[in-house]
């Protein structure tokens, strides 16, 4: 793009002499549909475009200053290390100055610049984003959400009419791209899914309000707004310009990352992110609204990418790339509304038998929801997952509550199309039978995976276990082995026994 097509202030900011500090030449300009970002080496400067999209209004200098300051304040929650200050760009003697003495003509948000390769979206596309990093992200986002405020006003944004407004606006603003970046069939199918959800799932949305899951969230938590810097994962560039876009269900935030991994062809990483978030937060019920929000986030990315097609300052080559990307996002928005057949897998075996290892492997391969009894038990007791539980956590009454909750979640989630793995010992008939009965009653496919290993191996595994949420130790093994009940003839129909000292892939196929 020719610099002459840029606003004069941006043309000036591309010159090294504009800045009071050393710069790395050439200064790089990144544009989105709403902002200019100039990368100078140690610092980045972000300016808001004078645009009004209805859902976002930066059309006046006063609004741009206000939202620069709002952005600075709000991003201290997830990326305080990056955000520095808001500076006026002044004009006097026919020249622009950064924080000069003349009249302010624009405002810039000054930030620490980090390598663009450290954006999680770039690490992902380069194949450098590991499963361990994704799990760390899941835990971080859950902890971030636990601190996000809520109140009656914020909760009101979870009401059907409020939630639906943005969806209807999305469809109205993208109809003109039918035949250009999406098909009529995709548009109709996506809209039909969301219309039907709002018509038939009002109780689900109401329960999200009741359980205070509508919070002041990030609002735009895709992988392009997350970076790895100085060994920390930082969540930056949250929504500052629109309350309905940030006063949202926590699953609205989670859906962005899930969508990114799906579009990038890595459902295994989507599964790692989602299952880690769910385990850390205990919000498994949130899966009922996840498809709605994954579709919405894909559609939003499609929409804002489509907007680039209308921007005269965007080069034709970039517009072709934008069209291709928008087409992918529109397809994703439609595809994720097609829910499959739910199913249940019940793990079985004593502590150390490899249940969680097997369950995790299956979850990654089949995009299944993995629910560990250790996590459920601690959430029920209000105990941190990283904290060792006391004796009161393992009373018969608490065990009964834990298994009841596992079953409740399993049936709920499988009934709406998820494959669910219930990961617990299930070492007694009285614990297994309710699952078999409920699965049969709800016409859900069921499999029992019985994990085994020699006792010496079990002890070695338990003695070497570190940084795990399970409190089980080798001292419990003798009683567990003695009290485990064999499978009945009725149960054996569902059972597949696995020797976890042998190759799992061959046994699971």
Automatic annotation (TrEMBL):
Keywords: ATP-binding, Kinase, Nucleotide-binding, Transferase
Pathway recorded for this protein: Carbohydrate acid metabolism
Catalytic activity: D-gluconate + ATP = 6-phospho-D-gluconate + ADP + H(+)
UniProt domain Aminoglycoside phosphotransferase: residue ranges: 127-288
Enzyme class, broadest EC rank: transferase
Amino-acid biosynthesis keyword on record: no
Claim: Ligase is one of the keywords in the record: no
CDD domains given in the database record: GntK
The organism's place on the tree of life at top rank: Bacteria
Pfam family of the protein (one): AAA_33
Enzyme Commission numbers on file: 2.7.1.12
Family statement drawn from the similarity comment of this UniProt entry: Belongs to the gluconokinase GntK/GntV family.
Protein's name in the database: gluconokinase
Organism: Floridaenema fluviatile BLCC-F154
Upper taxonomic lineage: Bacteria, Bacillati, Cyanobacteriota, Cyanophyceae, Oscillatoriophycideae
């Amino acid at each position: 793009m020719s610099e002459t097509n840029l606003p004069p202030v941006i043309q000036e900011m591309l010159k090294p002499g504009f800045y009071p500090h050393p710069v790395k030449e050439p200064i790089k300009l990144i544009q989105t549909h709403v902002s200019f970002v100039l990368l100078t080496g140690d610092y980045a400067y972000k300016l808001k475009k004078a645009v009004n999209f209805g859902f976002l209004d930066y059309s006046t200098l006063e609004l741009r200053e206000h939202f620069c300051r709002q952005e600075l304040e709000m991003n201290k929650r997830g990326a305080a290390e990056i955000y520095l200050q808001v500076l006026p760009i002044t004009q006097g003697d026919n020249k622009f100055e950064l924080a000069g003495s003349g009249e302010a003509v624009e405002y810039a948000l000054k930030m620490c610049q980090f390598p663009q390769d450290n954006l999680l979206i770039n690490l992902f596309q380069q194949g450098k984003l590991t499963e361990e990093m994704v799990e760390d992200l899941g835990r971080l986002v859950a902890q971030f959400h636990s601190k996000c405020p809520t109140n009656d006003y914020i909760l009101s944004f979870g009401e059907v009419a409020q939630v639906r407004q943005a969806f209807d606006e999305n469809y109205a603003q993208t109809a003109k791209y039918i035949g250009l970046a999406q098909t009529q069939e995709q548009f109709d199918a996506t809209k039909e899914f969301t219309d039907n959800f709002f018509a038939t799932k009002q109780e689900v949305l109401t329960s999200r309000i009741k359980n205070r899951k509508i919070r002041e969230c990030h609002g735009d938590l895709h992988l392009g707004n997350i970076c790895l810097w100085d060994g920390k994962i930082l969540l930056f560039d949250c929504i500052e310009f629109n309350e309905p876009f940030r006063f949202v269900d926590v699953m609205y935030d989670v859906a962005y990352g899930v969508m990114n991994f799906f579009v990038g062809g890595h459902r295994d990483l989507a599964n790692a992110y989602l299952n880690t978030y769910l385990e850390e937060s205990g919000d498994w019920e949130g899966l009922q609204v996840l498809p709605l929000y994954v579709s919405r986030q894909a559609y939003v990315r499609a929409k804002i990418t489509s907007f680039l097609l209308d921007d005269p300052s965007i080069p034709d080559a970039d517009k072709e790339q934008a069209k291709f990307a928008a087409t992918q996002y529109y397809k994703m928005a439609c595809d994720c509304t097609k829910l499959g057949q739910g199913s249940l897998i019940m793990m079985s075996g004593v502590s150390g038998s490899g249940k969680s290892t097997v369950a995790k492997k299956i979850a990654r391969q089949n995009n299944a929801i993995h629910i560990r009894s250790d996590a459920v038990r601690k959430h029920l007791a209000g105990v941190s997952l990283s904290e060792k539980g006391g004796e009161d956590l393992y009373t018969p009454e608490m065990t009964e509550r834990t298994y009841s909750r596992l079953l409740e979640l399993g049936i709920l989630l499988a009934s709406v199309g998820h494959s669910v793995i219930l990961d617990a010992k299930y070492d007694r008939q009285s614990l297994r039978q309710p699952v078999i009965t409920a699965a049969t009653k709800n016409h859900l496919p069921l499999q029992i995976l019985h994990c085994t290993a020699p006792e010496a191996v079990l002890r070695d595994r338990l003695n070497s276990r570190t940084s795990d949420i399970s409190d089980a130790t080798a001292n419990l093994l003798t009683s567990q082995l003695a009290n485990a009940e064999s499978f009945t003839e009725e149960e054996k129909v569902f059972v597949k026994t696995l020797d976890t000292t042998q190759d799992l892939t061959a046994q699971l196929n």
